[in-house]
Amino acid sequence: HEDKTPSFEMTWGSSTSSGYCSDEESDSEFEQYFTARTSFFPKTKKPENDEQTEWAKQELTTPDIQQKVKEYNAQINSNLFMNVNKDGSYTGFIKVQFKLARPVSVPPPKKETGRKSAGVKRRTSFYLPKDASKHLHISSRTTAREVIEALLKKFTVVDNPGKFALFERSERHDQVYLRKLSDDERPLRLRLGAGPNEKLLSFVLKENETGEVNWHAFSMPELKNFLRILQREEEEHVKQIVQRYALARTRMQEALSGSTPG
């Protein structure tokens, strides 16, 4: 039986490069981004696969773990080995790919931290490189939530971890399946069960699209901009409805004026 105390360490295998950066106080850029890509009435999306894969359901004994770790290490062509501890837990590496469509928030450059901002916290919007990935050295006790928090800490992202979710990606029968991991699932256990083949199992960090927006996860500047966008969408819908009825009324009046009394 494993201790539930969180325990993990991390190593990072690649450097980062920034995409487009903008100060969060630049409302026009912020609004332009979210107006172009966000709607408060999203289109219906094809549901993702929520069914757990076979290796997600496995419960392994210590001898089973030792055997599977031995088989796993025999299949890899790098030094990213797994190691079994005396207590039956084990450590190893997982690779997480970033698939973020929106910018993340990071602290402002150090040269700006000395400015007086009248109590307003300044942050910078940062676009992570497309298809960036990171290797993490974790324990079999490390949860999906801890993996997300570790990734955000590495990039000094100050956004609420609840904005993000870790997904299991697998390719089966020429189709790609995505399953969102629950906060308490253990990614390294999934990695061991599936083996090192990235097609059978890989991990992806995405926005946490739950269908219900967790507004408490957003900052005050973000919420104010959302309200402006919402008002703009509402005004546009009202305008379209008014125009539709005005056009119908005009056509009715034209029909009445052109008709001959009986």
UniProtKB/TrEMBL annotation:
SMART domains: RA
Gene3D superfamilies named among the record's database cross-references: 1.20.5.110, Phosphatidylinositol 3-kinase Catalytic Subunit, Chain A, domain 1
Region listing for Disordered, in residue ranges: 1-24
GO BP: Ras protein signal transduction
Cellular component GO terms held in the UniProt record: microtubule; nucleus
Molecular function via GO: zinc ion binding
Annotated protein name in UniProt: Uncharacterized protein
UniProt domain Ras-associating: residue ranges: 120-210
Keyword Isomerase on entry: no
Pfam families (alphabetical): Nore1-SARAH, RA
Predominant location category: cytoplasm
Residue intervals of the SARAH domain: 212-259
Organism in which the protein naturally occurs: Periophthalmus magnuspinnatus
Compartments it resides in: Cytoplasm, Cytoskeleton
UniProt entry keywords in alphabetical sequence: Cytoplasm, Cytoskeleton, Metal-binding, Microtubule, Phosphoprotein, Zinc, Zinc-finger
